[in-house]
Design brief:
about 475 residues; 10 helices; HssS/ArlS-like; about 15% strand; Heat Shock Protein 90; five-stranded mixed beta sheet; His_kinase_dom; transmembrane helix
Length: about 475
């Protein structure tokens, strides 16, 4: 059977409350019984002291204990200790005491069974040698003794065996009433707790229900789903994390759709050109000569580069792009990339300004082929998007922990708000860096993947020459942990 979390929480709260109430009830039951018993024993201890005073006065009046050997005299003395007014009468001696109510004869075996639990049945008188003179207890274990002294001399002891449990009807009735009251209080407390726990459980579970419903909508593809953020507690933090997750999924879905649309567009354009060229040749509109073959070959190469770039991006996404890293001199890799494209810069009329350290020392732990691809892509990007007659400055600086490479070209430039998007896939600045220049918007994205794979950073900044400055920072081998 499926139990909702609200009722599970309610059951848990009621179980905890019930355990506390039952424990409190049992403890209070025990405390009332034992506390009241201790109170009764304390009261009887006070009476025992009064009885000792009665016996002292009686001993002074008679000179010995012979008067207390009879049961009738003994119980008359015990009765005299019941109230404080009896002490005044005891001062006049045993002969002047008013006769108490008749006592039954306890010399035989006819005393009432419950009499032994009363004060009269648990008190006894001992002489100075602790020999029994009067009283009913036959054993003296666990008997509290009180000295009877005359002029500083011990003439006897009066003893009392403490109560082990309550026997008086009124005392038992009082304890019973207290226990019933405690039971009623426990029941009321449990009911009040149940009345409070149900709305409290509902209130605690309500944010979780909202989160569950929002999670269901999010799983169904509604990435615009958001939940209100509550107080600064665990549920509030969970709501904030949920909103962050929903925002990330929404951005990823938007990027995926844009990615699919851009890839489709990039593939459709060269295919449309190829189709048009081939159909024109088939229809006889154009002749299959060197010029048409050159055009077809150019579109095929563009399509091939696009497919290769997409393939590398996909390999990076799935973590299958391999890197064979080793200790290499960054200066040598950069010089190789510059030498391979230096002639093309001269043909376009772009002047190169190169600043490299004279001595080696920029040693990095990297894949030389991937770094050559990185620098070649950046140089090719500047070659395509720099106006003829412009300039490109390349600088390599080796610090204590980082090697910094900068590529700063001349106009045209990029708006500052678009610089950080240059590394997005299939992104192009339409005003200048468009498809007519031959790019698909994947070169810088591949560069960013290569740099991140080498634990470095790459940034796009405004160039002092009016174009774009690309800054690459890579950790040196001495800075690796």
């Amino acid at each position: 059977m499926k139990i909702m979390i609200k009722y599970r929480l309610l059951i848990a709260m009621l179980a905890a409350t019930g355990a506390v109430v039952i424990s409190m009830f049992l403890i209070m039951q025990w405390s009332i019984g034992h506390g009241f018993l201790a109170y009764v024993n304390t009261m009887e201890k006070d009476r025992l002291e009064r009885l000792a005073q009665v016996l002292e006065r009686a001993y002074q009046a008679n000179g010995n204990w012979e008067f207390a050997r009879s049961d009738e005299a003994w119980f008359r003395l015990v009765a005299a200790s019941r109230e404080s007014s009896d002490l005044d009468r005891a001062e006049r001696g045993e002969r002047r005491m008013q006769p108490p109510p008749p006592f039954p004869n306890f010399s035989g075996h006819s005393r009432p069974p419950r009499f032994q639990y009363r004060f009269e049945g648990r008190v006894l008188l001992l002489d100075a040698q602790k020999a029994k003179l009067a009283g009913l207890p036959s054993v003296q274990e666990a008997v509290q003794l009180h000295k009877i002294t005359i002029s500083g001399r011990i003439v006897g002891y009066v003893g009392l065996r403490p109560r082990q449990h309550l026997t008086d009807t009124y005392q038992l009735l009082f304890v019973k009433q207290q226990k019933l009251t405690m039971g009623l209080v426990a029941v009321v407390m449990f009911l009040v707790s149940a009345a409070i726990s149900l709305p409290l459980a509902h209130r605690l579970v309500l944010p979780i229900k909202r989160l569950a419903a929002s999670m269901h909508r999010l799983a169904s593809g509604e990435y615009g789903t958001r939940v209100p953020v509550g107080p600064e507690d665990e549920l509030g933090q969970l709501a904030r994390d949920f909103n962050t997750l929903a925002l990330s999924l929404e951005n990823n879905e938007r990027a995926r759709r844009r990615w699919v649309a851009d890839v489709s567009h990039e593939l459709r354009t060269p295919l449309a050109i190829l189709r048009g060229e081939i159909e024109a040749i088939q229809d006889g509109v154009r002749q299959a000569g060197p010029e048409s073959m050159r055009s077809l070959h150019g579109e095929v190469m563009h399509l091939s580069r696009l497919v290769d770039d997409l393939y590398q991006i996909s390999l990076y996404d799935i973590g299958a792009l391999t890197y064979r890293k080793e200790k290499i001199e960054l200066k040598e890799v950069l010089e190789d990339a510059l030498s391979s494209l230096g002639q093309e810069f001269m043909q376009k009329g772009i002047s190169l300004s190169i600043e490299l350290p004279r001595a080696d020392g920029c040693t990095v732990f990297a894949d030389p082929d991937r770094l050559h691809q990185l620098f070649s892509n950046l140089l090719d990007n500047s070659l395509k998007y720099t106006d003829a007659g412009g300039q490109l400055s390349v600088k390599l600086h080796c610090g204590q922990n980082l090697a910094q490479v900068e590529f700063a070209d001349s106009a045209p430039g990029v708006a500052p708000d678009q610089l950080e998007r240059l590394f997005d896939r299939l992104y192009r600045v339409e005003s200048s860096r468009n498809r007519a220049k031959g790019g698909a918007g994947l070169g810088l994205a591949i560069c960013k993947n290569i740099v991140e794979a080498h634990e470095g950073t790459i940034d796009a900044l405004p160039s002092p020459h009016g174009g774009v400055l690309i800054r690459v920072e890579l950790p040196l081998t001495g800075s690796r942990t």
